[in-house]
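Now for a specimen:

…
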Amino acid sequence: MSLTHTNWPIHGRIEGAVVIIGFGSIGRGILPLLERHISFNPAHLVVIDPRDTNRKILDERGIRFIQEAVTSTNYTALLTPLLTSGAGRGFCINLSVDTCSVSIMELCRDVGALYIDTVVEPWAGFYFDSKLGPEQRSNYALRENLLAARRRRPGGPTAVSCCGANPGMVSWFVKQALLDIADRCDMIVDVPTTREGWGRLAMQLGVKGIHISERDTQRASVPKPANVFINTWSVDGFISEGMQPAELGWGTHEKSFPERGRKHTSGCGAAIYLLQPGGNTRVHTWAPTPGPQFGFLVTHNEAISISDFLTVRSGENVLYRPTCHYAYHPCNDAVLSVHEMFGSGVAQTEHHILGEDEIVDGFDELGVLLYGHQQNAYWFGSRLTIEETRKLAPYQNATGMQVTSAVLAGIVWALENPEKGIVEADEMDFKRCLEIQRPYLGKLFGQFTDWTPLQGRISLFPDPSIDASDPWQFSNVLVRA
């Protein structure tokens, strides 16, 4: 492997212990970035995972490994002595499934440690608990639990919530995209510094909605075997969110409510859910390389947090809010895996994540498509190839690097802002975070398009549900057949 840089900058120092929970595709990918950009004492680094699949990487470095699951009954006793070892403030990097983010971040804050994760994760069993209804199993509910923890204890040690590629990086892309659209419209604007300022900029520009638009083309030389779920990132994570209800931030421009849509009975009110799994819900979307494509409306935290962040209110009245949702076309093997799972009604028990060494070619093109404004639609994001990824850092594919580099940016931001309390990626300094992440994103670019969801349809079967008066209604985006 040849690395394209030799003099990597050190962005910060962790004085105390570094505790990494989870050593799967993202955990092992973040390790070389930490070693490269963060100063810390290797003797105070510990990795915890119930499986020892990637232990060789740690043993080669002499890094302590604890093979144990972090659970609701052991997390306090297990993590407290680890986080409080060392001479200074510790840092917990939670990259595992089935570990309750809120519980662990509150423990970290109790002992004075910093914290970061990539998703608001519950304890094991939540996603498939038949006693819970769709609303209770939603990301909206998980996020409301996080916001309640912040209200209970504002300020204090920084805990960064949902800071991967998406959720995370895409919230920073949205801000850059808003500024780019304003520039194209010849609007002279100061970069907003408040939540309300960003919301009013989006409202002034006339942005009706945002797709988190992604196309993953990475492929292996060996075709997918039957009854194996293959993906380029956590299979457990994808199956879990695919089985949650489809969720989306619900915009003020929408005229009709989805037939299978439901509103939440409490909380911020920024989102709705559908009475169907996100992994079996398709939408029309667009990305620069493929052009028009189908994407899965898989629930993600950013669909809710971005809509909430950009909401403009007058007292209790909502004046403006954009629709926002994920529109995900995973790698082809994952598409086949999803169809196989829903077709059989049973999730595959054999899982496989495509490693960087078995992928023959492809890229992950991940960005935000802001639509409905004067310029119609604008996509801003990252296209990172597997070839570029191999040259940049080991132990990860292109999808993984878009995540691990965002985690790195969040770690640096937390070290530079150690007393901000519980924060979401939408609230962080997007310029600083993208400055840290930029070397790992491949081609970072924006592209305007005249595409709308009414284009590129097969016209042999007219759809009476189409609203031709406004192409950007969700009723035009949702695929019905």
Notes: The radius of gyration is 21 Å.
